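Running this now, will post back.
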Amino acid sequence: MARAVVNVPATVKRGEIIEVKTLVQHAMETGFRRTQLGEVIPRDIIRQFVCTYNGAEVFRAELHPAISANPLLTFSTIATESGTIVATWTGDKGFAVTQSVRITVV
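Update: finished.
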């Protein structure tokens, strides 16, 4: 299982812009490299990232072979109410990781 991290402030004020940082552990093989014997190394990348805040989608990214290993994604959203931020990464070969974190809005 890959390691995934979602970092947000634990407590924020209503209406405040919050920065969400996400990181997932994945080697991201492009499918363009070859072994020493000349055989193509099969593609194995994260293809999609989706983040929701209390069930509403706040960020989505379609990823391609040019993305580095262990991709770090950072984006902003507005704190509207206390709840859960859920990040989901999906990719080739059945790769799927979900990480969630609670946020308190005062």
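Strands lie at 4-7, 11-12, 17-24, 46-53, 56-62, 72-78, 83-91, 96-105. More later if anyone needs it.
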